[in-house]
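User: Hey, my collaborator sent me this sequence without any context and asked if I could get a structure. I don't really work with proteins. Can you help?
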Amino acid sequence: MDNQHKTLINELSKLLLGGSAHASFSDAVKGLTPQLRGIKPENMPYSIWQLVDHIRIAQWDMLQFSKDADHQSPKWPDDYWPKESEPADEDAWKGSIEQIESDLDEFIELLEHSDIYQPLEHGDGQNILREALQMADHNAYHIGEIVAIRRFLGNWKS
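Assistant: No problem. I've predicted the 3D structure and written it out in structure-token form, which is a compact way to encode the shape of the chain:
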């Protein structure tokens, strides 16, 4: 791997992990009061739980699409958003967060060991680079919403 490619992979990894230009996912959910996970503030379509689980589902889908030609994506938009405004229990909350973190680690591993420019055989022009940028963009957008809701609810560190 040449230095330019290494630099690109390094920067993509930082972008995916967050924390440079925006809060990381871990920071966005750290210290969140459990009772606030399911609250939908007025004029907001989603609770923090729904945003967290949506990130999990969408990120999982992008990871699976990137590595598995037989992967079938969930039905859009119904299967990308949880219906319940709050997690069923603490295990559901922790499980969603753990999957987000482990899927992100797995995607970064894929990024580091793939030809990121090569179109995926089962796609229609997508490649790992595009999936990395889409994942980073998607996650950052919803992480920002989590932070905004926490601010609105008075539960952000400022």
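In plain terms: The helical segments are 3-17, 25-29, 48-67, 90-112, 128-152. You can pass these tokens on to your collaborator as they are.
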